[in-house]
Each structure stands twice: as structure tokens, then as C-alpha cells.
Amino acid sequence: MTANKIDWFMRRHDYRPEAIGLTEPPQESSVDISSGISPGIPSDIGIRLDRTNQLLEELIRIHVHDKITEHDIDISDSVTYTLSSSEAALVTYTVPPNYVMLLREFFTSLRDDTTYYVYLNDEIFQYNPDMSFPGMGLAISPQVTFKMYVLNTYGSSQTYSTVINASLRREVYWLYPTYSYKKPV
Amino acid sequence: MTLNIKKFSIPPKMVDKLKKGEELPHVDLDRALREADLK
Q1: B4 inside domain
Q2: Total structural domains in chain B?
Q3: DSSP-assigned states of every residue in B4-38
Q4: A156 and B CB contact within 8 Å
């Protein structure tokens, strides 16, 4: 459930403990309200009737509250490799599931800083050490794979290093324990 | 959460194109990588 959906949920159904008059700290409950829930009534609400359809109690369960925390993880990784003449390397990095990546650096350097060619995603760049790639500083969606091709167009072997520096951010939603509120009848 | 690397050979004519300043389509590189995998 996204933050927006939770916000909407909380506005539409104001089941905060204080909003429903619950002054005591909520207690965890294992009350089963799966029976007696009428169609069209949110699954968070249930009623229990006696055999003569007298309302015994009204139960409200609170499943989810709002947000939440953010976790940032700094990542820094590099790989060094030697390419012979006319050899290429495909260097990839995939943003892990559930994370958004804030990309700071993704570059390849050559020992002598000579200009050479790299491909990043669908664009080609004649690389020099001072350039920035498009996408720097932007939030990258989960599971997007960056691809960087490094081509050795020299007549001899060259050693390259590809470096990535970024932050991974994960939004964590705390699920409150399930509470029940028994409305007096 | 690490960089992955895969090496492959590129056809000499691709290198020649680059040296002439011609752009090399991204798909050509993908194809070269696939063909290298098949060998």
C-alpha cells in the first residue's frame, strides 16, 4: 500500500483510535470478525448479532496506520578489468526490488584518462573524465538496469575501472497490530 | 547490489566505425553480445 493510498484510507475512514473514542491503549486482539460482515461494508468493520438479530457489538479493526520510515543505504562499488584490443565489456547494475536509487556517479575511467567510448543505456558518449551522464541525481525506479558498454578501440590491452556511487532508499510501512474496538451498544 | 561485468568481442568493422567517428547503434552492441554468448 502506497503512502497516498494510506493517506486516502485514513481520510476516508478515520479509524484512528482517538477518532473513534478509544482512549485506552489499543489491545491486540485475535477476535475473528470474518463472519457477520455484510457485503459492501469495509472489511475493517464487523458486527455481531445474537439469534434475534440484536446487535451485540460492533467491531472495528485497525489494520494499517500511516507511514513510516525511510531507510537509506549508501552503495559504492567498482570493478577493474582489462580489455584486449577490440574487446568490449558490458557493465550492469540493477536497482534492487523495493528500492529507489539516487544515482550520484556511474562512470568508467581509463588509466591514462584518454577519451574513449562508452554506451549508457541507449545513448553513446565520447567519454572524458569531466562529463556527467544523464540521470545523475535523479531517482531511479526499482529493478531498472543500467547498462554501460566500454569498448577498447586501442590496438593494445587497456585497464578500465567502472565505478558506481549511489543511495538506495526504501520506504518502510509499519503495520500496526490488529486492534479491535468494541463499541458499546 | 554489485556491479556485474561481462566481456565480449566486437567485430573489427565496429571498431573501424567508431574510429571514423560514426555512431554505433546500441542494438549492434547487444547483438554482438548475444553472438558472443552463442559461441
Answers
A1: no
A2: 1
A3: EEEEEE--HHHHHHHHTT----HHHHHHHHHHHHH
A4: no
Contact B16/A at CB under 8 A: no
Task: With respect to residue B15, please indicate whether it lies within any of the assigned structural domains.
Answer: yes
Provide mean pLDDT across the span A29-50. 41
Asked whether residue B23 is domain-assigned, the answer is: yes
Query: CA-based angle B30:B33:B34, to the nearest 5?
Result: 90
Domain containing residue B14: 9-39
Over its C-alpha atoms, chain B yields an Rg (Å, rounded) of: 12
Q: Does A88 contact B at CB distance below 8 Å?
A: yes
Q: Does the distance separating the beta carbons of B1 and A168 come in below 8 Å?
A: yes
Domain coordinates of chain A in residue numbers? 3-67+173-183, 70-171
pLDDT, one tens digit per residue, over A126-136 is 454 444 444 44
* Chain A, nearest residue to B5 by Cα: A91
Residue B37 lies in a domain: yes
Assigned CATH for A70-171: 2.60.120
Establish if B1 touches chain A: CB-CB under 8 angstroms.
Answer: yes
Q: Tell me the chain A residues in contact with residue B31 when contact means C-beta distances shorter than 8 Å.
A: none
Going by pLDDT thresholds of 50, 70 and 90, the confidence category of residue B6 is: very high
Which residues in chain B have their CB less than 8 angstroms from residue A94's CB? 4
Residue A182 has pLDDT above 80, yes or no: no
Least confident of A15-19, A80-84, B8-12: A15-19
- Interface check for B9 against chain A (CB to CB < 8 A): the answer is yes
Tell me the CA distances in angstroms from A75 to A26, A51, A120, B15, one per residue in order: 40, 62, 19, 34
Of B7, B14, B23, Cβ closest to residue A89? B7
> What is the distance between the alpha carbons of residues A20 and A39, in angstroms, rounded to a whole number?
22
What pLDDT, in 10s, does the model give residues A134-164? 444 556 667 777 777 888 878 888 888 888 8
Has the ipTM of the complex gone over 0.90? no
